[in-house]
Write a structure and sequence with these properties.
Thrombin, subunit H, 3 helices, 8% helix, Peptidase_S1_PA, Peptidase_S1_PA_chymotrypsin
């Protein structure tokens, strides 16, 4: 998607389902169920309705810069069906996604990624960190995937902050969605791996965003989107970026 930024107009916190199903029939569910992040992003400001005490989203358009979108890829089946999203983290050649996005793929096997500009990228599944709800892939140098920046976004984030859930721009017409951070430490079940605490954000999010980044208003990574919240709430759950990065480092170090 060279030369342009993803744009969408957000309605005021409509409680919508994330809808992480594959973009083509036959692919696995891309909700990324755990059992189964110096670019600038500018989400609309969260404001409180008079007397409600609850934050809502303004309806201003949102743009995510191309240099942020360039680091987010589509994870696809051999037939080109979108399984979910992934992004380059701050380790050389390392890409992370939700563990459910690569369900059924054995470590050491090849994985097809597609960049924002539509170019394919060869990757290898290095392993899974079930306790963190993420999977780790490796791409070769020269892949053209810039790392997304985390900085101190997680430390500074507070409930009620406007944030952005981002999916793969290669296949999603509206890859970025403004949501509101509701909780930084929400308990989530990880199946046999136990449980963890995660970020929870509320609001409509891009279909197929599982495995993509949850970004702060400054475009820094807060976490890795791993699941959708129940339909009655509408939103995403994301593993904190520092935990995902540590899990990725441990997998790479063990090779």
């Amino acid at each position: 998607m060279p030369g342009r930024s993803a744009r969408l107009v957000a309605a005021a916190l409509v409680l919508a389902v994330l809808g992480c199903a594959p973009q083509h029939p036959g692919g696995p569910g891309a909700a990324g169920e755990p059992a189964a992040p110096t670019a600038s992003a500018a989400p609309p400001a969260a404001t409180a309705a008079p007397g409600s005490g609850a934050a809502r989203l303004d309806t201003a358009p949102v743009e995510v810069p191309d240099d942020v979108l360039a680091g987010v890829v589509s994870v696809q089946t051999r037939r080109g069906a979108h399984r979910g999203s992934a992004f380059r983290i701050g380790l050389e050649g390392v890409v992370v996604t939700a563990v459910g996005v690569v369900a059924g793929i054995e470590p050491g096997r090849g994985v097809r990624l597609v960049r924002a500009d539509g170019e394919p990228v060869a990757a290898e599944l290095l392993g899974r960190a079930g306790g963190a709800g993420i999977a780790v892939l490796r791409v070769e140098p020269g892949s053209g995937l810039p790392p997304l920046v985390a900085g101190t976004a997680f430390t500074r984030a507070r409930a009620g902050d406007p944030v952005v859930a981002v999916g793969a721009p290669a296949v999603l017409a509206a890859p970025a969605a403004p949501v509101v951070l509701r909780d930084k430490r929400r308990p989530v079940a990880l199946g046999a791996a136990g449980a963890a605490t995660a970020l929870a954000a509320e609001g409509p999010a891009a279909p197929g965003a599982a495995g993509g980044p949850l970004l702060s208003a400054e475009g820094q990574v807060l976490g890795v989107i791993t699941a959708r919240t129940p339909p009655a709430r509408g939103g995403v759950v994301a593993i904190p970026v520092h935990r995902a990065r540590q899990a990725a480092f441990e997998i790479v170090r063990a090779l």
